[in-house]
């Protein structure tokens, strides 16, 4: 306990935060893990059943579907969503006039409450001929599209909506990184007579790499937990084509009243995320040696 | 307490050591304990202990007329039963708030939930058995037996039905008139769903329903260049399966059947059910009479009907007012008719109700008080003056809010109550009854309760099937239902003891 005494003031300052963290994060987390091993009535433990809840979740065809879908969400978010903020940040860093205006405009969608954004996109994607996008298509003589009613396109379309909402904040992080690059590199490069593309290719992008790696992991972790967009925009449909893992937890607990399965699936998702993160650290560590 | 003897002379920020801090906090703790104890003791014996009944159906504060009405009921009740105290807690049921609330024992003594929830709440031990209290009051035998069954488990009753509903076909008369299906034949200013000869101008079979829906969508497209769905079929949040089970029944299917040993087996892919799904598929892809969305829920139909984007919808009779209250639709432009008959003459209306339920931790006296308060709300089989005046008061408040007043499907079967309710309804009804009467006339012979086991899970599985049929013109109904049937049998019905 002497380490506490040595830094008593520091601990005292941290105490409220620590108490809240333990109460609102760690205790629920641990109690969720423990609930997942019991047969429950409501949230009340009835009997210890070991891994039965896990076995039941893994056998559920909806779980297999949701697991695959969540992988698709992550895949599409890397293909569609990941390059967008990098490109935007590069463009912004080269913009001279109206930079503040562009920065603000890009950040605005982030200010829109998540549910409102999801409803807004649902409205845009209305599959009826009078829907917003279909109306625009109709104006140029194209047939109406099913949008979110297409099992094939539903996930990429939701990812577009996710990207619209989140790209602005990420862009600002990239932009800050770009602007902190030592200007002497660019001056030296100009002396050597390089053009814009070469500067981006040999100076900006390598300097961005650590940020890119970090944000890639953060994005995977956050997209892995996609919940309310499919909940609001599609209900997980059509035919569970957009059902995500977190939405399935919601279904277990709140729709079916099956808390034990929800707790087990929560642990499965957490373990999957831990594995992903561990893989990443392992990969970046190896990569970092010749960085 | 080893660390107390740790004589490491480190800096002492704030001039106090750990021991001093401990001592202080200990004194502080004792002080707080004493204070709390004193407050508790002061609280005791101050007022005579009343039995507190919390009522979750209390209206939100902004609904002033409704709050005034409830306050009046509370005043009357507490005057007659001075041992009770009624506390209003406006609680709108929602599964994500209810579970934590119930777990921490904070549920109101009596609350209103959805017709989908009773069995789930009973499973999770969140509600209590009230059979003894119902029998003591003589209400048990007056309760509609079908509704009592829905609120029961193993012969014990867990709730009181507020009212019942049957599924029927809601019609937007304005669209029917635009395409020339109905007119104001008798010249009283209201469109008539029956022709001059008294014959129904609405579809009475599923074949007619498909033809009518197709005719409306095509006529609207060709003559008015408007996109109007002839019919709206829901497909998400379990509403798809819920409506589909009624459609399948009318084609002659039963979705759950008992085998020779009395075990329940899934029957989702019965030929009649496949036929019902084919009917939906044709309506969507060949007739072009359904909306394109594959995720319509119960909150969507009334915007479609209320804004003239759909001509017909399958709706519970307790929700007819929604296009009026939410979209300002003229109530005389609505007609509500019985579910059509299937190709072999089957004609059923899915029947359910909205229940009041009681907190698991409520005492016998609290339950008794809550039940007696229902009488003061006009929601019991009693016909005392106070009960009848509450019925009237409820009607009047609804009329003042501009709601359409329709006959309610009453959950109590004792004749004196039924007669009194009928009389009051006749007094206050403000819709043109001929456009609604057929439904009420046929409901007693058409009504059928939902399939018995894992009903919501079955609906969820059927939702996915219906979405696929609405999304994919090449969907194979038989294959989809067979796969759904296997899932339902393996993961749910086989678990039944």
Automatic annotation (TrEMBL), chain A:
Pfam families, alphabetized: BPD_transp_1
Record organism: Geochorda subterranea
Assigned protein family: Belongs to the binding-protein-dependent transport system permease family.
Keywords annotated in UniProt: Cell membrane, Membrane, Transmembrane, Transmembrane helix, Transport
Gene3D superfamilies noted in UniProt: MetI-like (1.10.3720.10)
SUPFAM superfamilies: MetI-like
Name recorded for this polypeptide: Sugar ABC transporter permease
Domain ABC transmembrane type-1: 67-280
TM spans (from-to): 7-27, 73-92, 104-124, 153-176, 208-228, 259-283
Domain of life: Bacteria
TrEMBL record, chain B:
Keyword Acetylation: no
Membrane-spanning intervals of the chain: 27-44
Protein keywords: Membrane, Transmembrane, Transmembrane helix
Record's keyword annotation contains Transmembrane: yes
Coiled-coil portions: none
A Pfam family hit: SBP_bac_8
InterPro entries reported for this sequence: Bact_solute-bd_prot1, SBP
Protein name, UniProt field: Extracellular solute-binding protein
Taxonomy of the source species: Bacteria, Bacillati, Bacillota, Limnochordia, Limnochordales
């Amino acid at each position: 306990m002497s380490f506490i005494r040595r830094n008593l003031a520091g601990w005292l300052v941290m105490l409220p935060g620590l108490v809240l963290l333990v109460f609102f994060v760690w205790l629920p987390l641990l109690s969720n893990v423990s609930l997942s091993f019991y047969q429950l009535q409501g949230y009340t433990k009835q009997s210890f059943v070991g891994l039965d809840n896990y076995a039941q979740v893994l056998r559920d065809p909806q779980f297999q579907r949701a697991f695959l879908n969540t992988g698709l969400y992550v895949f599409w978010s890397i293909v569609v969503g990941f390059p967008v903020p990098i490109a935007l940040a590069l463009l912004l860093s080269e913009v001279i006039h109206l930079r503040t205006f562009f920065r603000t405009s890009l950040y605005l969608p982030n200010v829109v409450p998540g549910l409102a954004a999801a409803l807004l996109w649902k409205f845009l994607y209305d599959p009826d001929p009078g829907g917003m996008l279909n109306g625009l298509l109709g104006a140029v003589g194209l047939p109406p599209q099913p949008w979110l009613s297409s099992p094939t396109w539903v996930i990429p379309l939701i990812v577009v909506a996710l990207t619209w909402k989140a790209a602005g904040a990420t862009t600002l992080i990239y932009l800050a990184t770009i602007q902190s690059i030592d200007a002497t590199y660019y001056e030296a490069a100009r002396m050597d007579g390089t053009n814009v593309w070469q500067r981006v290719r040999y100076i900006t992008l390598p300097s961005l790499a650590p940020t890119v790696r970090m944000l890639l992991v953060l994005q995977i972790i956050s997209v892995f937990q996609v919940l309310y967009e499919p909940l609001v925009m599609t209900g997980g449909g059509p035919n569970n084509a957009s059902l995500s893992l977190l939405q399935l937890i919601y279904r277990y607990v709140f729709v079916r009243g099956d808390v034990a399965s929800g707790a087990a699936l929560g642990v499965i998702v957490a373990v999957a995320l831990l594995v992903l993160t561990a893989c990443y650290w392992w990969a970046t560590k190896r990569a970092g040696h010749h960085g | 307490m080893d660390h107390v003897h740790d004589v490491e002379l480190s800096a002492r920020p704030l001039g106090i050591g750990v021991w001093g801090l401990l001592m202080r906090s200990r004194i502080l703790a004792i002080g707080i304990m004493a204070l709390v104890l004193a407050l508790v003791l002061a609280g005791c014996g101050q007022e005579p202990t009343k039995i507190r009944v919390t009522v979750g159906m209390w209206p939100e504060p902004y609904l002033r007329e409704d709050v005034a009405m409830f306050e009046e009921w509370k005043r009357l009740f507490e005057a007659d039963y001075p041992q009770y105290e009624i506390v209003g807690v406006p609680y709108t049921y929602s599964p994500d708030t209810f579970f934590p609330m119930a777990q921490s024992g904070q549920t109101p003594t009596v609350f209103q939930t959805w017709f989908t929830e009773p069995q789930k709440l009973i499973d999770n031990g969140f509600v209590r058995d009230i059979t003894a209290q119902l029998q003591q009051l003589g209400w048990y035998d007056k309760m509609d037996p079908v509704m009592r069954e829905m609120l029961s488990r193993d012969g014990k009753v867990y709730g009181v039905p507020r009212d019942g509903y049957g599924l029927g076909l809601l019609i937007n008369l304005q669209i029917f008139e635009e395409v020339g299906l109905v007119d104001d034949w008798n010249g009283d200013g209201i469109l008539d769903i029956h022709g001059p000869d008294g014959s129904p101008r609405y579809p009475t079979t599923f074949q007619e329903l498909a033809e009518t829906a197709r005719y409306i969508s095509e006529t609207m497209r060709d003559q008015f260049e408007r996109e109007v769905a002839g019919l709206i079929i829901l497909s998400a949040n379990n509403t798809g399966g819920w409506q589909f089970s009624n459609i399948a029944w009318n084609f002659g299917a039963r979705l759950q059947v008992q085998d020779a040993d009395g075990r329940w087996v899934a029957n989702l892919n019965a030929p009649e059910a496949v036929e019902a799904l084919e009917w939906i598929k044709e309506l969507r892809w060949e007739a072009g009479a359904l909306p394109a969305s594959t995720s319509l829920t119960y909150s969507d139909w009334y915007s479609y009907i209320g804004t003239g984007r759909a001509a017909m919808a399958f709706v519970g009779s307790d929700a007819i007012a929604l296009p009026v209250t939410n979209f300002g639709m003229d109530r005389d432009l609505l007609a509500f008719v019985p579910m059509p008959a299937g190709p072999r003459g089957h004609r059923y209306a899915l029947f359910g109700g909205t229940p009041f339920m009681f907190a698991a931790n409520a005492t016998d006296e609290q339950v008794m008080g809550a039940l007696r308060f229902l009488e003061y709300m006009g929601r019991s089989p009693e016909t005392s003056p106070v009960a009848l005046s509450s019925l009237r008061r409820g009607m009047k408040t609804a009329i003042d809010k501009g709601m359409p007043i329709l006959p309610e499907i009453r959950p109590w079967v004792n004749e004196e109550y039924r007669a009194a309710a009928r009389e009051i309804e006749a007094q206050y009804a403000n819709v043109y009854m001929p456009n609604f009467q057929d439904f009420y006339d046929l409901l007693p012979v058409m009504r059928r309760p939902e399939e018995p086991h894992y009903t919501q899970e079955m609906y969820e599985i059927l939702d996915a099937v219906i979405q696929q049929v609405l999304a994919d013109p090449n969907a194979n109904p038989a294959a989809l239902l067979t796969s759904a049937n296997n899932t339902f049998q393996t993961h749910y019905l086989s678990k039944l003891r």
